Amino acid sequence: MFAITPRLVLRPGWPEDAPALARAIAHKSVVTKLSRVPWPYGQGDAEAFLADAWQGSVPRFVITERARDDRPIGCIGLHHDHDLPELGYWLTPEVWGRGYATEAGNAVVALARDSLRLPRLRASWLAGNPASGRVLSKLGFVATGRVVPQPSRALGHDVDTVEMLLDFDADEPRMPIAA
Q1: Rounded to an integer, what distance in angstroms lies between the CA atom of residue 139 and that of residue 113?
Q2: What are phi and psi of 75, to 5 degrees?
């Protein structure tokens, strides 16, 4: 499955992406904003992530810039660790502040709503990363009022996460999109 936005290509991750993916995420400033990612992050971690990405029934994408090479600059996708599909994403620091998380997020939210026909999505962000909370708000997510501790593999202790929910309006007509 692929998604193309004005500036990005969201595509499956392939085994040969492992070295570039490891370089893109292997920044302490990235992994300390994510709960499931170990530190230090190496090529073996990227290989395991890429192998696991093909196992699920929900989409996971490597993010690349259309105007540049096919080098991964981040990842975005859905996973089922809870009762609802959850949106997760990260970008390498080199591209922070360009609106890429919102652009990629809009594509995945549209896919979840229009093609997968999911009734709602869940997301959460680490309380120390308000920029992620702003991205999720732009995507239509609303805070549930719950802040829950979650283990951070990179930090080695629990961190507070702010839970958010996106309910797709049942009365809103849905447009099918190619996937």
Answers
A1: 12
A2: -140, 155
Cβ neighbours for 69, distance < 8 A, ≥ 6 positions apart: none
The neighbouring-strand residues paired with 157 are 152
Is the Cβ–Cβ distance between 125 and 132 less than 8 Å? yes
Place of tokens 């229009």: 114
CA 176 to CA 94: how far, in whole Å? 34
Mean pLDDT check: name the lowest of 50-64, 69-83, 103-117.
Answer: 50-64
Judged by DSSP in three states, 152 sits in strand
Task: Tokens for 64, please give them.
Answer: 């690349």
Average pLDDT, integer, range 16-43: 94
- Give 145-160 pLDDT, tens digit per residue: 999 999 999 999 999 9
What would the two tokens of residue 51 be? 């192998």
Give the span between the Cα atoms of 26 and 103, in whole angstroms: 23
Partners of residue 147 on adjacent β-strands: 162
pLDDT for residue 177: 52
CA angle in degrees (0–180, nearest 5) for 125-50-105 = 40
Asked if 50 and 14 count as a contact pair (C-beta separation under 8 A), the reply is yes
- Distance between CA 151 and CA 153 in Å, rounded? 6
Neighbours of 53 (CB within 10 A): 19
